[in-house]
Specification:
By secondary structure, this protein is mainly alpha-helical. It contains one helix and no strands.
Amino acid sequence: MAKEPESLVLSLLGEMRAEIGHIDETLQAVRLTVAGHDLRFDALDEKFDMIREGTVSAIGFAANASRAHVDLHKEIAELRRRVEKLEQAP
């Protein structure tokens, strides 16, 4: 019995299957890398939120302190005016 030549179609399908296996491995590596990046971005988002909240709180405290400082100066000025008025009274 004579040997039949290897089918060209089967040969090409085998090569394609090998290439698909390589592509699957590469795709899996990309998916793992993306998952790692997602975790890092989530961590950065949390840090950003903490920094933003801290900044807003600090600005709020500073604004309140500034307003209290101005109010205190107004009250002192009013008391000085009243004292000067009392000192000038006969």
